[in-house]
Amino acid sequence: MTSRLPADDTADDTADDAAGATSDPAGRPTVARVDDQADASVHVHVHVVTVFTDARGDHGNPLGIVRSTERTHGAEQRIATALGFSETVFLDELVEGGGGAGTAAGGRRARIRIFTPATELPFAGHPCVGTAWWLARQGTPVLALDTPAGPVAVRDTGDLVWITGRAAWAPDFAFHRLGSPGEVDALDPSGFAAGRHYAWAWVDETAGHLRSRMFAPALGVPEDQATGSAAVALTARLGRDLAIDQGRGSRLLTRVLPHGAVEVGGRSAAAESRTIDA
């Protein structure tokens, strides 16, 4: 059975001529306004989850989650650009029961689309982990997420949420192995004018513990605080489980699975929701 996701209680039909965005003291967008040639505007409610936090629930990478409606269809890229998160998820529908690829018989799955500020992605790890975590806390846990790349299996252990991806689904990253974590820390995002760059160094090679940063101007993301798809791709390249400290303090965990699959997981925490005028 397919259930259409209900709209949030934030619809408004009044026109709004303003454009621009406001920020909180930390510089994060609170209310963004998107230029629209339509005759009416609508308030779009955006749930926010911080993904791949540390053990205390700090740091991590913010994720916007929007329940798709007729009003958001066709405006996804403009909404994601206005929000400015490294990724925003649009939750199109929940499919109840009936099994299907990537799910157990009788399981629930969700169909999602993922947008950076510059483009749509077929797969990304931090949006999948965060969406699965958020759906479970809404009382609608899923066994899989249907993405344009394919079905993404979900495993929720309570403390951690894991999703399964493949290196072939990830963007084409340029991986840069450096000599020490200090060299990774010293990198300047302004030195990466184009492309998608993942710099990393071992903290403890024996333990599979590494330090990383990711710069993706091609995706409209000067620096990403936690990049699950890059973690999947690097795990596949190295052929081993990893513990990754990325950005200002994000923690990602990976596990090598059979047949070329990789599981990436971590902790998530709820953050303050936002509103977009679109």
Concise structural overview:
With 278 residues, this protein is mainly β. It is 13% helix and 42% strand.
CATH topology of the largest domain: Diaminopimelate Epimerase, Chain A, domain 1
Structural class: mainly beta
**How are the strands ordered across the major sheet?**
4-5-6-7-9-10-11-18
Question: Which term fits the overall shape?
Answer: globular
Helix amount, in percent? 10-25%
Low-confidence stretches: 3-39, 99-106
Whole-number mean pLDDT: 86
Query: Which CATH architecture of the largest domain is right?
Result: Roll
Major sheet: size, sense and barrel closure? 8 strands, mixed, barrel
Whole-number tally of structural domains: 2
CATH-wise, what's the superfamily of the largest domain?
Diaminopimelate Epimerase, Chain A, domain 1
Task: Write the element-wise H/E pattern from the N-terminal end onward.
Answer: EEEEEHEEEHEEEEHEEEHEEE
Give an overview of the whole structure.
- The chain is mainly β and 278 residues long.
- It has 2 domains: 165 residues, Diaminopimelate Epimerase, Chain A, domain 1 (Roll); 99 residues, Diaminopimelate Epimerase, Chain A, domain 1, CATH 3.10.310.
- Helices cover 13% and strands 42% of the residues.
- It is built from 4 helices and 18 strands.
- It has an 8-stranded mixed barrel.
- α2 packs across α4.
- The longest helix is centred in the middle third of the chain and has 13 residues.
- The protein is globular, with a radius of gyration of 18 Å.
- 43% of the residues are buried.
